[in-house]
Amino acid sequence: MDPCPCGNERDYGDCCQPLIEGRQQAETAEALMRARYSAYVKTAVDFIIDTTHASQRSNYTVEGIRKWSRNSEWQGLTILHTEGGGPQEEEGVVEFVARYIEKGKPNRHHEIAQFRRQEGQWTFVDGQAPKPQTVKRQEPKVGRNAPCPCGSGKKYKRCCGA
Questions:
Q1: What integer best gives the mean pLDDT of the chain?
Q2: Model's pTM, two decimal places?
């Protein structure tokens, strides 16, 4: 058994390989996203180019894709959210995180990817980084000279705030 790189817990031959080899078409935007990730793992550059929307292909080069694919140690794909992109739909969005190691350093590629059907087939249109989430503090802010909330009796700046 050869586990599929997309993380679907299926055999590669039954999951993404038929799509990458052109024997089957992706039924959903998420299925295409998973196959594109697997294509990067397997350095299937032609599949990546072929499944990029025609209006966007000029933004990619075969050599650039090949270089990133080969110079990265792919660690896994996590699909965070999908919107639309079903078998009967024309557009879809897939938010994902692809983890990889490049030049010995771990990286995360977090993207919200747009997909659209072109001549009946799902294609990748564009991707953008998600907007940072603002974290709201639940407790009131502790002042530097206030007693430390840990109960030590010291000022915050001399205890946990040091």
A1: 94
A2: 0.81
